[in-house]
Amino acid sequence: MTEPDVSVVVAVYNTMPYLTKCLNSLVRQSIGRDRIEVVAVDDGSTDGSGRELDRFARLYPETVKVIHQANSGGPAAPSNRALEQATGRYVFFIGADDYLGPEALERLVRAADEYGADVVLGKAVGVNSRNIHQAVFARNEVEIDLFDSALPWSLANTKLFRRELIERHHLRYPEDMPVGSDQPFTLEACFRAKRISVLADYDFYHAVRRLNAHNITYRSRHVERLRCVESIMEFVAGLIEPGERRDAVLVRHFAWEVARLVEDDFLLLERAVQEQVLAGIRDLADRYLTDRIRARLEIEPRLRIGTAQRGTVDDLVAVIRQDAEQGVPPTIVDGDRWYAGYPGFRDPRLDLPDAWFDVSDTAADWLARLEVVAVTWETCDDGERVLTVTARTPRRDLASLTSGPIGLTAGDVTGTTLETSRDGTGSTVRAQFRVSLLLAGSGAGGSLLGVRSHLTAFGGVGSAAVRAPTRPTVSRLMFRRGMRFFMITPTTSHRGQLVIAIAPVTPRRVLARLRRRLPQGGK
Fold first, then answer.
1. Element containing residue 392 per DSSP (H, E)
2. What is the per-residue pLDDT for 515?
3. In this predicted structure, what is the pLDDT of residue 231?
4. Taking the CB of residue 487, how many other CB atoms lie within 10 A of it?
5. DSSP string, 324-348
6. What is the full DSSP assignment across 132-190?
7. Is-contact 331 341, C-beta < 8 A?
8. At what angle do helices 271-288 and 222-239 cross, to 10 degrees?
9. Which of 49, 56, 219, 393 could form a disulfide with 45 if both were Cys (CB 3.0 to 4.6 A apart)?
10. DSSP letters for 507-522
11. Could you tell me the pTM of the whole model?
């Protein structure tokens, strides 16, 4: 057999029935099976995934290689084992519950050859409301730079890598990281690459959110995630010298991985775990959090991480409870500066700098902060169902400070503003979203639409995610678009923000729902 163009690495652990679609998407690639090899490692699956891999190996013996091993506790070890067996000019990694567009590998290999790229990113899209950071996929790019692009926000390993690059630098996954082990691998590959290209004109990679959420990333706990982010930051520090370039990478890890450790669910942790997480964050902040990074963080993570660095668990809990339970903080005006009135502001015991609370340069965004008070299903005069969102701010002067309407959006869908009013305790904004528009803005695989407020004030446009301190009690409903059915669920994200989840409904689920509605005997 001649050298394949690309080796596709699949680390597998209990991913049925998603695995079947994943493997079919590989063996049916337009590049042809004679130009690829699939190296799949069964990491001790117990759900039949190993048998499914063997079935594909029997069907496609020249293309599919299968390795079985005892469970290792994460994707790092099986990925490394597969790399030892890979023989292609390029290597592509795919999650065993994800799948590729039919032309994905052909397009990626063609671009890598044409551009001389060591790493090629193909546009990734989410399925079943999985959220994928899209900034790096704004346009096709022959060459991007790791340090002045959105690439640090897209460090998943789901890219095409030149295998010569991998072997020259002996790039492997750290096997002591149960979560996030692909990030050090991807980061160093991009750091060492002579050229990184982006293809954004085709849906290459379909990242699936499992409906049972048994993926190890979904289940990982705070202490495990803390240890992983510690490993990642140590790796970054060993790879990149201190300065702007290192900060350009580390800002993502503070804004994402560290910030996730102090989101609203921190309040639910046992006290001992809270203490452990706070101590870990304090150490990371003392070692790596520069003023340049801190200035790029949004107000919530900036204050939560800063309070963890300087204060106690009780101080951090007070800051989180302000958002999670008490609502939009007051605005403290001092001269020409605006400050977010979180607990700890000008507290001499903590001695937190005013600059950490300063929102003057983003005053329009700060003004746009709203909190959900109600989400309801209603019916328009024309009979169409709509989702009505009512949100509030403690600012009674909201309307007088803005120029133009105050509106809400869900993803790219603009709601119809029904009301902007004020009373003795603040201002209310109420908007409706037509179901037809929500569904039209969603792909066949579903979507997760974040609800945001938008307004014009102080000569600029302000926008903020609408927070929902408690999960909406409104029911989820099923709707049809053409021949497909979708479930629309108003809910909250891990950040305590209102989102509208739109997920496709399988025929089996539709039939089960219809049976429940029928009288006994189906009559």
1. strand 385-393
2. 60
3. 95
4. 17
5. III-SPPEEEETTEEEE--TTTT-T
6. ---GGGSS-BS---TTSSSGGG---S-SEEEHHHHHHTT----TT-SSSTHHHHHHHHH
7. yes
8. 10
9. 49
10. HHHHHHHHHHHSPGGG
11. 0.87
Q: What tens digit of pLDDT does each residue of 468-500 get? A: 877 788 888 999 888 888 999 999 987 889 999
Query: Can you give the pLDDT at residue 523?
Result: 43
Q: Tell me the residue ranges of DSSP E strands in 13-137.
A: 36-43, 64-69, 90-95, 99-100, 119-122, 124-127
Taking alpha carbons only, the member of 105, 75, 112, 117 closest to residue 7 is: 105
Distance of CA 305 to the CA centre of its chain: 20
- Which amino acid belongs to residue 342? Y
Quick count: other Cβ atoms within 10 Å of Cβ 489?
Answer: 18
> What is the Cβ-side half-sphere exposure of residue 8, based on CA atoms within 13 angstroms?
30
Residue carrying the six token digits 């950040």: 495
- Give the Cα separation of 469 and 495 in Å (integer): 10
CA–CA separation, 26 and 215 (whole Å): 21
In this structure, are residues 454 and 406 in contact, taking their beta carbons and an 8 Å threshold? yes
Q: What parts of the chain have a pLDDT lower than 50?
A: 213-220, 521-523
Q: Categorise residue 180: left if φ over 0, alpha if ψ from -120 to 50, beta otherwise.
A: left
Q: Look at the chain and count its residues.
A: 523
Residue 151 tokens, joined: 């690439």
Quickly tell me which residue has 């009505």 as its tokens.
388
Radius of gyration from C-alpha coordinates of the chain: 25
Strands 64-69, 36-43: pairing is parallel
- Residue 463's closest CA among 477, 476, 450, 447? 450
Residue whose C-alpha is closest to residue 279's, from 316, 253, 238, 251 = 316
Residues 6+ apart with CB under 8 A from 363: 338, 457, 458, 462
Interacting residues of 182 by C-beta distance below 8 A, sequence separation 6+: 75, 79, 93, 155, 156, 157, 173
Distance CA 166, CA 83 (A): 9
Segment (H or E) for 364: helix 363-367
Instruction: Decide: 359 and 338 in contact? Cβ < 8 Å.
Output: yes
The Cα–Cα gap between 438 and 253 comes to 32
How many whole angstroms separate alpha carbon 7 and alpha carbon 9?
6
Q: At what angle do helices 299-310 and 313-321 cross, to 10 degrees?
A: 160
| Confidence at residue 414, expressed as pLDDT on a 0 to 100 scale | 94
* Residue matched to tokens 């983003």: 362
* Alpha-carbon gap, residue 40 to 94, rounded angstroms: 10
| CA-to-CA separations, 384 to 379, 387, 486, in angstroms, rounded | 6, 10, 16
Summarize pLDDT for 334-348 with one digit per residue, the tens.
999 999 999 999 999
